[in-house]
Amino acid sequence: MTSTDLQATVAHMGAAARAASTKMAAASAAAKNQALLALARRLRGDTAALAEANARDVSAAEAAGLAAPMVDRLRLTPKVLATVAEGCEQIAAMPDPIGEITNVRRRPSGISVGQMRVPLGVFGMIYESRPNVTIEAASLAIKSGNACILRGGSEAIHSNLALWQLVQAALAEAGLPQDAVQLVQTTDRAAVGFLIASPESVDVIIPRGGKGLIERISREARVPVIKHLDGNCHVYVDATADLELALRVTDNAKTQKYSPCNAAESLLVHASIAPAFLPRIGAVFAAKGVEMRVDAAAQALLAPVPHARVSAATEQDWSEEYLAPVISVKVVAGLDEAIAHINRYGSHHTDAILTEHHPSAMRFLREVDSASVMVNASTRFADGFEYGLGAEIGISTDKFHARGPVGLEGLTSMKWIVLGQGEVRQ
Fold first, then answer.
1. 298-337, pLDDT tens digit by residue?
2. DSSP conformation class of 54
3. Is there a contact between 338 and 236 (Cβ–Cβ < 8 Å)?
4. What are phi and psi of 250, to 5 degrees?
5. What is the mean pLDDT of residues 172-181?
6. How far apart are the first and last CA of the chain?
7. Residue-level pLDDT at 394
8. CA 232 – CA 211 distance, rounded (Å)
9. Cα-flanking dihedrals φ and ψ of residue 410, to 5°?
């Protein structure tokens, strides 16, 4: 396909999405829920075809020498399919946010002023590796009354096509426009450039993938972008932390899965609890092959741990998103230093404090400048499904509009409404 042909294709998709978005904005909650339940049913029933398509992508990725974490993200395991199907059902069970009227106030003039929740219109989703994002994006678009144009990574093209065909069938079954969810069917990267430079067709772009992809989209887009660049998530073990809880949560935050953006990459430990905590968590990490890049105080406590992989941290380590069995470790004097360190080196994604001291927990919640802030819980919970959003379109570390896991409400906006009975301005 020539550049001109590709640009025309993307423009045609944009026009079709814009037309479909008008119909989706007016669609009934019953029709949208019917499509979501049909999609869940098909995800559970068409596993053989999905497995065949996914196997093609996984085999090609392995043959191309793709890194193991990237290959892992490609896999549509039965567990992954069950999770996205359940996500569709959760979203169907949620109240329809579209048309909700809130904050109505009577003014001295006699008019009543309030706000109504409405769809954004059309969003473009550009993502890498994880084909389950196709379903998450489609299901949220359907329920929120939006249309979307999806462009997955070339490494997942067969999986994405197979999943998208299920979405198309579910939309048709519910009597909704199939152009409400479109997939860019070429792996040509130039399609991304055309899509993100189409404000006449797309209201917002949501990139989900590596830092390089998101930096490119942010730099070149001519439409607003909902994004996060890094997931340098912290766990801070406070002086009053319950030791067993701290060991369990820190282990989970780091090792439950290394590749997600909500995995812990940095561990901060209060100096008074460090002698009791660090050798024990060091032994856990040593058993799992996790490398620890540490400051001098942590190194002194971790050096005696058998088989521990310990090295001196560089300045860059405090800011690093490893997405691998590596973690930075620093001993801090107290809560003030922990908060200052997180706000300086963190990526404003997700950070947790482990403590039994309520005032310290409340200060951490107020003062850590991140999209998700947690007390005595694993950072791995920073996820739309775990938050009860049904699914998420991504994580936003921006401060305008959507922040944190972006679910249904993040794909809507508010417009002002005025209710009157013939009032005129004096």
1. 999 999 999 999 999 999 999 999 999 999 999 999 999 9
2. H
3. yes
4. -65, -45
5. 98
6. 61
7. 85
8. 12
9. -65, -20
Q: Which of 144, 190, 136, 145 is nearest to 164 (CA)?
A: 136
The helices-and-strands tally (H runs, E runs) of the chain is 14, 16
What pLDDT sits at residue 317? 98
Residue 190 tokens, joined? 């130039």
User: Which residue, among 335, 383, 129, has the nearest Cα to 231 in the 3D structure?
Assistant: 383
CA atoms within 13 Å, Cβ hemisphere of 69: 12
Phi-psi region of 110 (alpha: psi -120 to 50; beta: other; left: phi over 0): left
d(CA 313, CA 76): 36
3-state SS of the chain: helix, strand, coil percent to 5? 45, 20, 35
Average pLDDT of the residues in 253-268: 95
Q: What is d(CA 413, CA 118) in angstroms, rounded to the nearest whole number?
A: 5
**299-305 long-range Cβ contacts below 8 angstroms, 24+ apart:** 301/274, 301/275, 301/331, 302/278, 302/329, 304/279, 305/279
- Kindly tell me if the per-residue pLDDT of 262 is higher than 80: yes
Do 201 and 18 meet the contact criterion of CB atoms below 8 Å apart? yes
Closest alpha carbon to 61 in 74, 42, 80, 46? 74
155 close to 74: Cβ distance less than 8 angstroms: yes
Q: Token pair of 67, please?
A: 């890194």
DSSP 399: S
Give strand pairing partners of 113.
105, 418
Whether the Cβ atoms of residue 354 and residue 376 lie closer than 8 Å to each other: yes
Query: Could you tell me the pLDDT band of residue 114, with boundaries at 50, 70 and 90?
Result: very high
Kindly tell me if the per-residue pLDDT of 390 is higher than 90: no
Strand ranges in 232-338 using DSSP code E only, listed in sequence order: 233-237, 264-270, 291-294, 309-312, 326-332
Average pLDDT, stretch 188-210?
Answer: 93
**E-state strands within 128-175:** 147-151
Q: How far apart are CA 253 and CA 379, in angstroms?
A: 5
Helical pair 29-45 and 78-93, crossing angle rounded to 10 deg: 170
